[in-house]
Amino acid sequence: MGMGISIVTGICITAADRDRLAVRNMKQYFPQRSYGVVMLKGKFLTTEARAFIDLIRPGLLTDRDYDDSGHSLR
Q1: What is the DSSP letter of 10?
Q2: How far apart are CA 52 and CA 46, in angstroms?
C-alpha cells in the first residue's frame, strides 16, 4: 500500500530520501547517543583498526603512558 513509518538516526537519511519522504526531526522525544572506542590496555591494534579509528576521530590515538586513560568529551 506504500504506507509506513520508521524511526531511524539522521545519518541514515540521504538527500534523495528527503526528496521522496516526509522527514521529521524527533530529537525532542529521544535521548542523544554517544559512541566511544574501547580497547584493552597493553594490547596492540592492527593497522586496519588504527586506520578506522583515525578515520572517525583523527588524533584520538595519541601516544600516552601505559596507565593514562585519556579523557571523555561527555
Answers
A1: G
A2: 10
